[in-house]
UniProtKB/TrEMBL annotation:
Segments of skewed composition (Basic and acidic residues): 65-80
Region (Disordered): 65-101
Source taxonomy: Bacteria, Bacillati, Bacillota, Bacilli, Bacillales
Family matches, as Gene3D superfamilies: Replisome organizer (g39p helicase loader/inhibitor protein) (1.10.8.200)
Protein name: Replicative helicase inhibitor G39P N-terminal domain-containing protein
Domain of life: Bacteria
Length: 113
């Protein structure tokens, strides 16, 4: 994020958390922690924080749990691909490939990764 984006985000936070330090000095100080973080993700995290928390947000809240977010996106993408594959199989009305059910059972039991 650029300094101006951080300043705008801090102004938004200040509207909802009056004790939040949105000073120019704080914006410049926090830039080193946020400069490589996407502004849209920060805004999304703060909007979610406003909806669910009463604690004044800090850098960790602004950044959110990026690893968890990436895992969530990856899981959603895999689920969509899997759903598309199931739909394709249902359209051609053929059984799943050889070994599909055995592999699925092993995955559910945790025997495979």
């Amino acid at each position: 994020m650029e300094v101006i984006e951080i300043a705008e985000l801090y102004k938004h936070i200040k509207k909802h958390f009056p004790f939040f330090d949105a000073s120019l000095a704080k914006v410049k100080e926090d830039h080193k922690y946020l400069k490589h973080f996407p502004a849209d993700a920060a805004r999304t995290n703060i909007d979610q924080h406003i909806l669910t928390e009463t604690v004044t947000p800090g850098i960790a809240h602004i950044r959110g749990r990026l690893g968890d977010q990436l895992d969530s996106q990856r899981s959603k993408r895999q689920a969509e691909e899997y759903d598309a594959q199931l739909n394709e199989w249902s359209e051609i009305d053929s059984p799943p490939p050889e070994g599909y059910w055995e592999r699925t059972r092993k995955l559910l039991r945790g025997d495979m990764t």
